[in-house]
């Protein structure tokens, strides 16, 4: 596991009679931009919620930065950034206050927290919104703030659940550019999406989930070698599910 920032081994999760994940295993190398795609009900959200330590698996194990998720989440959280699909920003606070309050979760000293917050606002082009209430921000600006907030603890791994859903092309492009820069600067990224153009643009390696199983995995160029595009692969999977 020394080469991997994330290792998933034989992970299984069942809800009543529904098997959301069926004994899946995969690894993510340090510095990778790793993708997760699949149709609705494939198990993507369940997998990410397990990595967030919100859902407890029935069996299997997860290691992040060499730590066992089951035993060492308090250690893991300091090197982990999380961007959930649902917006959970505090609308009563300003942009800057959202970052400062979140930094307290990691015990970051106030002076350092203010410095990091200002740097993140600059990076995400949010400086002019520093003292604006979150309630007044557009959807695209809120998503940028959520990603900024996830980086306040300087994580080595950031997990994003469909971060560009519902955004217009300009905001999607802006977030793509920022994520690309972060990855080039050494941040490992695990991201789910239902946009195939986004996957082809950003991901180097990926898994495709369907009905709780990994149906394809590896380098995105290898996965698409005998197909026209990810779109075609995705449509074939959806068609076989009917």
How does this model look, in words?
This protein has 242 residues and is of the alpha/beta class. It has a single domain (4-241), classed as Rossmann fold (3-Layer(aba) Sandwich). Helix content is 37%, strand content 26%. The protein contains 9 helices and 10 strands. It has helices at 44-51, 69-76, 95-103, 110-123, 139-150, 169-184, 196-202, 220-223, 230-241; strands at residues 4-15, 18-29, 33-37, 59-64, 67-68, 80-83, 157-161, 188-192, 205-210, 213-219. Strands 6-7-8-3-9-10 form a 6-stranded mixed beta sheet, sandwiched between helices. Strands 2-1-4-5 form a 4-stranded antiparallel beta sheet.
List the helices and strands and how they pair.
Layout lengths: L3 E12 L2 E12 L3 E5 L6 H8 L7 E6 L2 E2 H8 L3 E4 L11 H9 L6 H14 L15 H12 L6 E5 L7 H16 L3 E5 L3 H7 L2 E6 L2 E7 H4 L6 H12 L1
